[in-house]
Amino acid sequence: MSDVDVEAPGQPGRRPRGRPGYDRDTVLRRAIELFNRQGYDATSINDLAVDLGVSKSALYHHFDSKEALLSAALDEALEGLSSAVAAAADATRDESAYDRLRATVEAAVHILVAHLPAVTLLLRVRGNSPLEMSALERRRHIDEQLATLVRQAAAEGDLRDDVDPEVISRLVFGMVNSLTDWYRPDGPIPPDTIAAAVAGVLFQGLHASR
Amino acid sequence: MSDVDVEAPGQPGRRPRGRPGYDRDTVLRRAIELFNRQGYDATSINDLAVDLGVSKSALYHHFDSKEALLSAALDEALEGLSSAVAAAADATRDESAYDRLRATVEAAVHILVAHLPAVTLLLRVRGNSPLEMSALERRRHIDEQLATLVRQAAAEGDLRDDVDPEVISRLVFGMVNSLTDWYRPDGPIPPDTIAAAVAGVLFQGLHASR
DNA sequence: GTCTATACCGCGATAGAC
DNA sequence: GTCTATCGCGGTATAGAC
């Protein structure tokens, strides 16, 4: 977790004296939240300005363009995901691929939860610009790491053999990524619980254990 | 499956003589495809006109507005889903909730595959307009039917009891709905195969059966 | 059912004062 | 770091001829 420079995190608007306005990171947080709620394309700079209570041009002091906001958000998500997935796969390198896969899935859930807004935005990118295409490419690369783990576990005979490993990868990603549609870290379910639930359902299935 | 009026399904552009141009349904198919590829908000009427090789105003002959295109697409997805889920839950009414749940999941996969473009669009709706909010509400109602089935199966003791039934519902939806991100009916995997794979992984889990 | 031309608006972004 | 004012573009949608 690399921290960013924080200047005046408090409420703006009342201008306490000294430095008014927003710092760059606060603008980014609000932008990500709005992008997720309305969609990136459906969110105008004016929407964000109104939401923050400042004028449009004030935002251009912090970010060169609307796309620069998106870029910063996608970078955060991609860096968090790639480092976490790589670390998880690495920390368990002497175990079976099956165990490493399970550890990686749980790690992916944790990082998704920790960076939920940024990851949500990343997962909705459609590839409409060079920036978005680049993000999709980086994401595809991360996915490939997990797909490799699935193939290894399948080769070791620990996964069901009636479903293609590539399909298994897709289904695993599908369930994990779908958390962005409803899970909230400040809700009633702790991150450890949801990570265990996802891994449990994925690996043991829904049926009651006898 | 209610059919729509089809007039001149053939290739346009060369104007064979008689009636040139497109029928309403062809315009809708292409619109849905573009909306899915670029996102609804990022797709302009001009994009669609260029894609079809006609002028913008020609499109307004078939649909009153851009939103009317979205409305028609969402209706198709919602009608298909609700009727299919209701039918599946109904056809197996004398079996256990567990078996009915599994049958409903497979039916949901099939209908999702059959109406893939429209369902994909539906799942990406954010609620940015009254129309979109209405679609989200109808979708929530369909989800509730499956959630009820999950609760029944849990009450009958056939589901693992270490995960909340509401969470199970979310995870099931997550995996099923994620098919829209990659599955293609004209690809190498037949619909029956993917439906069996999803149900198998969900209910038995990924582990190799001993 | 299509076309050209256009009205009208909101978008991203900039200039320059405070 | 903020503001007002504005530019230029591209958006949805319409008018009316063919």
Summarize the topology:
2 copies of one chain form a homodimer.
Chain A lengths: L23 H15 L6 H8 L3 H7 L3 H26 L5 H18 L1 H8 L6 H26 L9 H13 L13 H14 L6
Chain A binds a DNA duplex (18 and 18 nucleotides) through α3.
Q: How is this structure best described in words?
A:
Two copies of one chain form a homodimer. With 210 residues, chain A is mainly α. Chain A has nine helices and no strands. In chain A, helix 1 (24-38) packs across helix 6, helix 2 crosses helix 3 and helix 7 crosses helix 8. The termini of chain A are far apart. The relative contact order of chain A is 0.10. Mean pLDDT of chain A is 90; it is low at 1-19. At the A-B interface, helix 8 and helix 9 of A face helix 8 and helix 9 of B. Chain A binds a DNA duplex (18 and 18 nucleotides) through residues 19-22, 44-46, 54-58, 60-62, 64-66. Chains A, B: Residues 1-22 are annotated as: Disordered. Chains A, B: InterPro entries: Homeodomain-like_sf (IPR009057), HTH-type_TetR-like_transc_reg (IPR050109), HTH_TetR (IPR001647), KstR2_TetR_C (IPR041490), Tet_transcr_reg_TetR-rel_C_sf (IPR036271). Chains A, B: Pfam families: TetR_C_24, TetR_N. Chains A, B: Keywords: DNA-binding, Transcription, Transcription regulation.
